[in-house]
Amino acid sequence: MRHMRLPRSQRPVRLMAVGLLAASLALTACGAGSRTGAATATKVACDFTNPSTPTTINVLAYNSSAVDPFSNTMVASCTHDNVTVKHDPIDFAGQLEKTTATLAGDTGTYDVVETYTYAIPDLASRGKLQPLDDLYAKNKDKYALGDLDPNTLKSMTYDGKLYGLPMQSQLLVMAYRKDLFDKNGLTPPTTFEELRTDAKRLQDAEGMKYPIALPLLSTADLDTAFAAALGSQDSAFFVNPDTKKPNFTEEPTAKALEQLKSLLPYMDPQVTTFDQPKVQQQLYNGKAAVAVMFSGRMNDLVQQKNTKLYDKFGFAAPPAVFAGGKAYSTVSTDGWSIPFNTKVDKDLLFEVIGASVSQEASQASVPAAFPARTTVDQSASPYAAATKDSLAKGPTKEIQPYVPAVSEAIRPVLANYMAGKIDVPAAQQQMQAAAEKVMAAQK
């Protein structure tokens, strides 16, 4: 899951990439973006009332193979007459930094910003985004917005108001070496216990030292992993939504910590430095046989230009931490939002983002993306079925304004625990104390 918490105006500006969720989910990613616009852009209808004077629309969105089709289509389709749409290549960390800056004052640099499920509550609660309900109703028929998955619209909603127009979703998906699994009589694991058993078999039979690869970098990746392991246990949350008391001293936290560490013997010792691109590299070069990453990374695995193993991968929903539990997964919807401080006409901006998520644009994003539209044919996507299964089996999302801040607060504790510097009880106590401090500041 991907979390993005931006500071209140009286706080020092600071970068915060909170996990995936995911992934984030946050998701640290960098792709070709506008630098390869000709390859990923689709020309669609973008019919708006032409402004009387030249107007530039600046779009802020990070580059990845899953997001690029939408941002590049926006640029290619809506730059005409007196309107110029601009999108400069940028990575995820850079996007967060620029989002912080553009929303900090009465006048911003960007007119359209990419937002995520876990960013919406924080940004909307502080008045940083323009409500879109009236614009959505006005353009619903024109852009067939009723075909957007209701769950994705809900994930872009806060306190009953819509703050983002969904384009695509990211879920944790398991990629595995189907050839090696078939050779050794293995099937995709459905629990962490089965995952460990399969990994041991691959170590013994194939001489593969580190069969498992997970993104456990001590940034958003690590707290995305913890949240997925926690949520797998009957959708356990960081904080009790009724009492607002953190839950880190409870048994599910202990089990989540123990189960994450139980995978370390089957992973590269440097795994706590692995972001998602590094996990991809482990699969590309054959050093790992199974990995769990966000779905936006999956299409890269089947590209012959990336790896000679492009035709060896299978995809499945991630395993549950324990039998009978939810999948080790999370979902984050990416969408377009309009900043509160843009000076560009809001009707024009909504026309532009509406065009970028149209049926034609969404269809063209497959298989790189998992678009929000229910009417898109995803039969060309090798991982779409696994993504849908991950969605069906995944935990209930914890979407609250305080989640990004809690995630950031517990991250150093998680890093120390995974590094072996503290044990489970100490980690629980430190996480609880850090989260209680965050929640006290929320009052």
Automatic annotation (TrEMBL):
Instruction: Please list which residues make up the signal peptide.
Output: 1-31
Entries under Pfam families matching the protein: SBP_bac_1
- Key words, A-Z: Signal
* Keyword match Signal: yes
Q: Which PANTHER family match?
A: ARABINOSE-BINDING PROTEIN-RELATED, DIACETYLCHITOBIOSE BINDING PROTEIN DASA
Lineage: superkingdom: Bacteria
Q: Keyword Coiled coil, does the record have it?
A: no
Write down what this protein is called.
Sorbitol/mannitol transport system substrate-binding protein
| InterPro entries recorded | Bact_solute-bd_prot1, SBP
What organism is this sequence from?
Answer: Microlunatus antarcticus
